[in-house]
Design a protein that fits this description.
Helices cover 36% and strands 16% of the residues. The two termini are 14 Å apart. It is globular. It is α/β, with parallel strands linked by helices. The chain has twelve helices and eleven strands. It has two domains: 8-133 and 260-312, Periplasmic binding protein-like II (D-Maltodextrin-Binding Protein, domain 2, 3-Layer(aba) Sandwich); 134-257 and 319-340, D-Maltodextrin-Binding Protein, domain 2.
């Protein structure tokens, strides 16, 4: 999702009670609120649409979806306060959830729902839950760069050798999260130096799709993006001979970061029971199988459900050991550093 608002979509279904959604409980709501919920969605609409359709079919609960940018929706929730019509906030990046969490606006997620995914992938306070993961990768065109010329660390991208060869999307939440990871692992001085070098080297694109298209067309040697863009492009391409390949940096490098999408129920939710059931479904084997079988190409987090077999095995990604709390707490400082370095947000 970018920093623009998408249209509101309303998805219909009959109002029925939930029967066994993998650990859901009432969350304090009445029986009358079980037939509907309002979802503020900052996750990719195509991913959420498939999940919502499956949830509605399984439960009969009507879902009204408001699609938009992560940060804009978070700002709306904060501005609306206890008057917000939203029941659930679902985002593609966890730092946004941490911002809302810091305002004390989330209710605690049902314990059985939290138990369906690894605790490290959810809020330490238990007020939002992880849903999917995505790996940071470098897509590269082997006709333009390969072998020993490839970077071995995210920190290499600030070196003069990569001037004009790297493409980034500076307004992406995942880029901000990547910079936060570098700051936490390498320190502020090294991060400022890295940002200064990247500012000289990088070509700016308005989306990860545009970056990948530039790499595949030979206009760009390397693109920084999340893994699923590459797989989605391959799945939809008429030709499967597109030249780009993926480089996974691994070795606990900041460039091996795994980002988490997640969701939380608002304390002010008009339909708290339905909201808790939705989170239970997202993290249940049934919901995670929808993700694995579809073309979102994100990693499932429920250990009972294997991710799409086309993805690199999760246990081979070797990401840095950074908690969701650490990544979320430092986001404001990261934004300030990006602005000081001349990146537009």
């Amino acid at each position: 999702m970018r920093r623009t608002m998408a249209a509101t979509a309303v998805l219909g279904a009959a109002a029925l009670a939930l029967a066994g959604c993998g650990g859901a409980s009432s969350g304090g709501g009445s029986a009358s609120d079980a037939g509907t919920l309002v979802l503020y969605n900052g996750q990719h609409p195509q991913t959420t649409q498939v999940l919502v359709n499956a949830f509605e079919k399984a439960t009969g609960i009507h879902v009204e979806v408001k699609n938009g940018d992560n940060q804009q929706l978070a700002n709306e929730v904060i501005a609306e306060g206890s008057s917000s019509p939203a029941d659930v906030l679902y985002t593609e990046d966890s730092p946004v959830l941490s911002v809302v969490q810091s305002k004390g606006l989330f209710a605690r997620v049902d314990a059985k729902t939290l138990a369906q995914v690894p605790s490290a992938d959810s809020s330490a306070k238990g007020d939002w839950v992880g849903v999917t993961g995505r790996a940071v990768v470098l897509a590269y065109n082997p006709r333009l760069i390969s072998g020993g010329a490839l970077p071995t660390s995210m920190m290499d991208l600030s070196k003069p050798a990569f001037k004009g060869k790297i493409g980034i999307e500076q307004t992406s939440g995942s880029f901000e999260e990547e910079v936060t990871a570098i700051r936490l692992m390498k320190g502020e001085s090294a991060t400022k130096e890295w940002l200064a070098g990247l500012k000289k080297n990088a070509k700016i694109y308005n989306s990860h799709d545009a970056i990948l298209q530039a790499v595949d067309s030979g206009k760009l040697a390397i693109g920084l993006l999340n893994n699923y863009y590459w797989f989605r492009t391959r799945a939809s391409a008429k030709s499967h001979t597109l030249p780009s390949k993926l480089l996974y940096l691994g070795h606990h490098d900041p460039g091996a970061l795994v980002s988490i999408s997640g969701a939380g129920v608002l304390k002010s939710a008009p339909h708290p029971a339905a909201a808790q059931k939705f989170l239970a479904y997202l993290t249940s084997p049934a919901g995670q199988k929808v993700i694995a079988a579809g073309q979102s190409f994100e990693y499932t987090l429920n250990p009972k459900v294997k991710p799409n077999p086309q993805l690199k095995p999760f246990d081979q990604l070797d990401p840095p050991s950074l908690s969701r709390a650490e990544l979320g707490a430092g986001q404001a400082q990261t934004v300030a550093m990006l602005q000081q370095a001349g990146f537009a947000l």
